[in-house]
UniProtKB/TrEMBL annotation:
It comes from the Eukaryota. Residues 116-126 are annotated as: LID. Residues 150-177 form a coiled coil. It catalyses: AMP + ATP = 2 ADP; ATP + H2O = ADP + phosphate + H(+). Residues 1-22 are annotated as: Disordered. Gene3D superfamilies: P-loop containing nucleotide triphosphate hydrolases. PANTHER family: ADENYLATE KINASE ISOENZYME 6, POS9-ACTIVATING FACTOR FAP7-RELATED. Interacts with small ribosomal subunit protein uS11. Not a structural component of 43S pre-ribosomes, but transiently interacts with them by binding to uS11. ATP binds at G21, G23, K24, T25, T26, R117. This is Adenylate kinase isoenzyme 6 homolog. Keywords: ATP-binding, Coiled coil, Cytoplasm, Kinase, Nucleotide-binding, Nucleus, Ribosome biogenesis, rRNA processing, Transferase. The keyword Cytoplasm applies. The lineage of its organism: Eukaryota, Fungi, Fungi incertae sedis, Zoopagomycota, Kickxellomycotina.
Amino acid sequence: SALPKSPQRANPNILITGTPGTGKTTTAEMVALAAELKKITVGDLVKERKLHDGYNDDMDTYWLNEDKVVDEMEAMMADGGMCIDFHTCGFFPERWFDLVVVLRADTKKVYDRLEARGYKQNKISENVECEIMQVVLDEAHESYKPELILELQSNTVEDMEENVEKIARRVDEFRRKHAQ
Ligand code: DAT
């Protein structure tokens, strides 16, 4: 099987990453339901528990405090069974994850989804460029072993359904492999 052995947990931890607008939150919700995992949207956690160093008005986003995020999440990740989503992935400890999904979408899809979300023009442009330059995919490859990474297209509802099935199968595979 493609998943490496992590004998310390019976349930896998999954990271769903990608440029904003690629469908992380929606996909993570569906995966959590389909595979009975607990979901954390890291962006919400950052806001709720103030794991940031204030607000960046230019970019309409919080200045992430990576150390605070890792400290806060360490205990949550220890037992496995978590499905988390975030738009950046390089600062998480590699040992946390059994699967790292990088969602990709066409430029126009990213643009339209972020415009519909009411993002400012500079924030839309930055994210569209990030997707074109495959910044998150490169970051994933710098931070995680290749066999952990699954790059998936997320342009249509059919893509999303297929992606959820694919990820749920990997969860099943992991559970079978790590069953006592
Ligand atoms: P993210 O968490 O990556 O920012 P999201 O899950 O909030 O993305 O999705 C942004 C919007 O785009 C939301 O209205 C759902 C829609 N969307 C995402 N992925 C899609 C897909 N594969 N097909 C159709 N719509 C999608």
